[in-house]
Amino acid sequence: ADAPLIVRVEATKPGPRIDRDVFGQFAEHLGTGIYGGIWVGKASAIPNVRGIRSDVVRALRALKVPNVRWPGGCFADEYHWRDGIGPQTKRTVTVNANWGGVPEPNSFGTEEYMDFLGQIGAEAYVSVNVGSGTVEESSRWLEYMTTDQPTTLAKERAANGHPAPYKVKYLGLGNENWGCGGAMSPDHYVEQMKLFSHFSRNGNPAQKTTDQMKRIAVGWDADKGDYTEAVMKAWASKAWSWDIEGVSLHSYSVGGWPPRMASTGFGEDDYARLLKETRGMDDLIVKQSAIMDRYDPGKKIALVVDEWGAWLAPTPGSNPGFLQQQNSLRDAILAAINLNIFMRHADRVRVANIAQMINVLQAMILTDGPKMVLTPTYHVYRMYLPFQDATYVPLAYSSATYTHGTISMPQVDAVAARDTGGQLWVSATNVDPNRPAEIVLDVAGASVSQGSGQVLTAPRVDSVNSFAAPDTVAPAPITATQTAKGLRIVLPPKSVAVLALR
Ligand code: AHR
Question: What sequence ranges are listed for the domain Alpha-L-arabinofuranosidase C-terminal (predicted)?
Fold first, then answer.
């Protein structure tokens, strides 16, 4: 048997705060992500509150979702907010040109989004249309959502059911404007972005001081840093009139473009390949942070990883434009690895949004008509709740290697943190699908004698939860035992565990 992996937990050397917004979600008008997944309409036989399905709301409330990015994605740069306000029967029907060319009924607009956020207890991350919209349109949308002054738009908002201003915590200044957002050169984007930053004013008085809206500029494309460079350079020499508080990074784990890795029925080759690729997120963050550090050594500007996750081949028989895929134990492990990377970079990565919340790409929840199932990724997010707003605790360890063919990577990936109540937590992932991993936690500076929590594993790397078998991948209890060297935990093959240390 392998010697146990000794993990030194530096409990007296607290690191940065892990912003809860790193556990954010992304809900785009795409396939059945919104229509069917969230919005069923008031007349639906599916139980709902004001048209928003109640089973999904219940499941998401349990995740304490901090923020939801909306309405896109590529959709955002073709979205016109006026199409989605006012009486349902008068909404404009448009075409969702990016995603399947299907009709977009605009039944889910600003009011419905804000209602959804209220029902699940999340905050708003709204992306404005820089690609095909105007500065005026964006500025008026912000006024409509946030002003407390008795303007015509505020009165219209009140007539639509919401007299009080909405809070917009994050404002996305476009989306992938190097691609679907208008194929702009970095310099052209920067000039546009400055106008949107300046004129999209937040009028909510409650947000004027400590709780200001944060504006996110478009940054790094998965393999190019030129947008980040241009945006940061402009920011460092900016005049008084505009500002940003974040720059985005998008990176999916795909296994080659176009996506063709199956989301079910795969073996260890695809498993190892995708996990190896996903570990590259660390490298991208290091590279983008290095650009940002040159202009912003004080780390004022957040790195916002507002699209990430597994992008796999569409579920056979589904509309390929709907980006539907199943979600397996592999996705759960992939999620844990990425969340761990974000936490290790908590000083710079302060927002992240997995793509996407429901029925699209690496989803939390799958629905089909009235049916709903929680995915393995959902369970990881639930197990990781203690890390929201926790204080990062450094770990020192040197993991054994998991090797499959020519692919190799550390077998164990672990992080630790102290939650807001002072409780110490550790998360450890064993990526090896064939061997357990024995680890011993040597906790420095805290008296710890017990560990207990949950472990997520399943019979196979491609095990999934289906409507017929919803609990194939579900958390089970796990405990640590005290030994002379520290707390001993045995991680099953291909598992994610989160334990409280007492
Ligand atoms: O999440 C799906 C799409 O991926 C988004 O709309 C776009 O921003 C990205 O390319």
Answer: 306-495
Which part of the chain has CATH 3.20.20.80? Answer: 20-388
Site to substitute for ligand 1 among 28, 78, 130, most atoms within 8 A of C-beta: 28
Which of 111, 176, 245, 277 is an active site residue? Answer: 176
| Helix (H) and strand (E) counts in the chain | 10, 26
ipTM of the complex: 0.99
Give the distance (Å) from ligand 1 centre to CA of residue 74. 6
Q: Where in the chain is the domain with CATH 2.60.40.1180?
A: 5-12+393-501
pTM summary value? 0.97
pLDDT digits (tens, 9 = 90+) for 137-177: 999 999 999 999 999 999 999 999 999 999 999 999 999 99
Question: What Å distances lie between residue 459 and 14, 405, 434, 436, 464, CA to CA?
Answer: 37, 22, 11, 13, 10
Report the DSSP pairing between strands 391-393 and 412-418.
Answer: antiparallel
Q: Name the residue with the closest Cα to ligand 1, atom 6.
A: 73
What fold characterizes domain 5-12+393-501? Immunoglobulin-like (2.60.40)
* CATH architecture of the domain with range 20-388: Alpha-Beta Barrel (3.20)
Q: Look at residue 1 in the predicted model and tell me its pLDDT.
A: 60
pLDDT given for residue 404 in this prediction: 98
Residues touching ligand 1 (Cβ under 6 Å) are: 28, 72-74, 175-176, 307, 355-356, 361
Check residue 220 and give its pLDDT: 87
